[in-house]
User: Fold this.
Amino acid sequence: MNVTNKKILVVDDEQKITDIVRAYLERENFRVICAYDGDTAIKLFHQENPDLIVLDLMLPKISGDEVCRIIRKESIVPIIMLTARDELTDKIVGLGLGADDYLTKPFEGRELVARIKAILRRAHPKSAIKIVTVGALTVDHERRQAMIGEQTIELTTTEFDLLSLLAAHPGRVFSRAELLDRLQGDSYEGYERTIDSHIKNLRRKIEPDPDKPSFIHTIYGAGYKIETP
Assistant:
């Protein structure tokens, strides 16, 4: 899939950063729009319908985490969160709100471009397996759609990829490190515990009782697996 010419909304209150990001992205033929506060970000999101959002956590007027929360109520557009501090708490908060990925400042422009391309490609993968059914759960790879019975479940790009991987191998236990590697690639340096945040979000959306999961099971000391209830 050709991911260039996609529209990227870059949100950061430091114009120096948005200028650098814009330069890197336009060099790769992305279309770039910028916002410098949370209020403008939400307005541009509604007006421009971007294909992906790069969102700083610390913003004036409306914070980045609140912007993410507002957008997630109505859209599954991929979001990459920027954090000023290399602290797990900030990243867990962002992922818990539905962000697909995070990057710590200062960051390499080339790495951000690589992350953006990877997420956009994952949104339109080529898969030999079209539809997987696990009990009442159906995962349609071609349409990138998950359903419980007749009800469609709204998932972010990362949530769908994680569910799709587990559902394609029912009963198999995946470690956190393996899930990170499968989803992000071996060049990705992330915290294994961020997988827990995505699993928590998934359970909240697909499980009848997230506190007593019937689909996605935790295998303590090993990882996660999916099984027919």
Remarks:
- The longest strand covers residues 7-11.
- The chain has two domains: 7-123, 131-226.
